[in-house]
Specification:
Blueprint: E1 2-8, E2 11-17, H1 23-29, H2 33-57, E3 73-78, E4 82-89, E5 92-98, E6 104-106, H3 116-121, E7 128-130, E8 133-139, E9 142-146, H4 157-163, E10 173-175, H5 181-184, E11 188-189, E12 192-193, E13 199-203, H6 204-211, H7 215-227, E14 232-235, E15 240-241, E16 245-249, E17 258-262, E18 265-267, H8 275-278, H9 292-308, E19 312-314, E20 323-324
C-alpha cells in the first residue's frame, strides 16, 4: 500500500511497500546509471500506478506488512541522480549514502583472474558498476554509522547526511568494516575529528594488523585512531555490540575485515567490489584483497549466511542503490 507521496523542492519522495514497487528491482539491476537518470521518473510513476491498483485489490498479502520478514519500506530521494535510499525492515531502518560523485565504474583489470571472455559475456568491458558508500542505521533508538567514505573534498558523506537531516554530532556509534582510506577518510576534517560524540568500534584483528604495517602504509590509520583513542573500542568476531549489532568475521580483504548484522540487514563492507562479476563468480578477487584465498572464502560464507537467514545485504562498493535483494 502506498504510504506517502509528496513533492520536496523539486524532488520526488515515494515511500511504499517494496513488494508492490518493482522499480526497486529496476534500480538494482540497471547497470547503466546514465540511462537510469532519464528513465527513472517514468518507471516510478508506472510503478505507482501498479501499486495503487494492487493495493485496491486487498488480499492476504496486506496482513504480512508488519511481520519481521515482510519486504521493507523504501524511500527514494531523487535529484539529478540517486544518492540516498532508505529501507526499513522490522525494527531497523538502513539508509544508503553515496559518497562518490557521479558514476563509478571499476575497471575490469582490477580483477586479474577474470578472463576477457567472461568479462565480454557479462558486458562489462567498459567497467563494472560500483560506488563508494556509507550506511546509516536507526536501531534501538540509536544512530549507527557504518564507515565514513573518503572524506572531503572527494567524499560527499557529510553532504548526504545533511540532506536527510543528520549532523555528524548526532552519530553516537561508528562501526568500521576495515581501515582502508575510502572507509575511514571521513572520520577527520583536517586535524579535527568529524564525529565528536561517536564511540568508535573496530575489530581487534584489524587494528593490530594495521598498527604493525610500515609508516607509508598506515599513516592515516595511526593519525585517525590516535584522534579517537579515548572512544575507540576493539571487539572480537562474534561479539554483540551496542544497538544489538553482531560483528561477523569477513577477513580476507583485510586482516580484520568485518561484516555487521543489524536486524535483517547485513552490512558487508568490501565483500564485493564488482557485484555484477563476483556475485556469480565469488572465487574472483579484486587486486585490493590482501589475502585472496581468505577473501573468496569469506565472500562465499557471508553470501550463504545472508541467504540462509533471509538477510538483505548492503555493501560499500555495491552499485546504486547500495542494496542487494534476492
Amino acid at each position: 500500500m502506498i504510504r506517502k507521496i509528496a513533492p520536496c523542492s523539486g524532488n520526488i519522495i515515494i515511500v511504499a511497500h517494496l513488494r508492490i514497487l518493482p522499480v526497486y528491482a529496476y534500480l538494482c539491476c540497471n547497470q547503466n546509471l546514465s540511462r537510469m537518470k532519464t528513465n527513472l521518473r517514468k518507471s516510478l510513476w508506472a510503478a505507482l500506478t501498479l501499486a495503487l491498483t494492487l493495493s485496491a485489490c486487498g488480499g492476504s498479502n496486506a496482513k504480512k506488512a508488519d511481520n519481521e520478514t515482510a519486504q521493507p519500506d523504501t524511500t527514494l530521494v531523487m535529484t539529478d541522480s540517486i544518492t540516498t535510499v532508505s529501507l526499513r525492515t522490522g525494527d531497523t531502518k538502513l539508509t544508503w549514502l553515496k559518497d562518490n560523485a557521479g558514476e563509478k565504474l571499476m575497471p575490469h583489470t582490477l580483477f586479474p583472474d577474470a578472463t576477457d571472455g567472461l568479462i565480454d559475456s557479462l558486458a562489462l568491458a567498459n567497467g563494472i558498476p560500483s560506488t563508494i558508500s556509507v550506511f546509516l542505521a536507526e536501531r534501538e533508538r540509536k544512530l549507527i554509522l557504518f564507515d565514513t567514505g573518503n572524506g572531503a573534498p572527494q567524499g560527499h558523506m557529510a553532504e548526504e547526511m545533511k540532506r536527510i537531516g543528520v549532523s555528524p554530532a548526532d552519530i553516537k556509534l561508528l562501526y568500521l568494516t576495515h581501515f582502508h582510506s575510502d572507509h575511514i577518510g571521513g572520520m577527520m576534517r583536517g586535524d579535527t575529528v568529524l564525529f565528536p560524540n561517536a564511540e568508535v568500534y573496530a575489530s581487534k584483528a584489524e587494528y593490530e594488523a594495521w598498527m604493525q604495517m610500515p609508516k607509508e602504509q598506515n599513516a592515516l590509520v595511526v593519525k585517525t585512531m590516535e584522534a579517537y583513542k579515548d572512544r575507540l573500542h576493539l571487539f572480537e568476531f562474534g561479539d554483540t555490540l551496542p544497538g544489538g549489532v553482531v560483528a561477523l568475521d569477513a577477513a580476507g580483504h583485510t586482516p580484520g575485515h568485518t561484516a555487521y548484522r543489524a536486524g535483517q540487514f547485513l552490512i558487508v563492507g568490501d565483500l564485493m567490489h564488482g557485484v555484477a562479476l563476483q556475485r556469480e563468480h565469488p572465487d574472483i578477487c579484486a587486486s585490493f584483497d590482501m589475502d585472496k584465498g581468505a577473501s573468496a572464502t569469506a565472500r562465499k560464507r557471508i553470501m550463504q549466511y545472508a541467504e540462509d537467514n533471509d538477510l538483505r545485504m548492503a555493501g560499500m562498493h555495491f552499485p546504486a542503490p547500495g542494496f542487494l535483494m534476492k
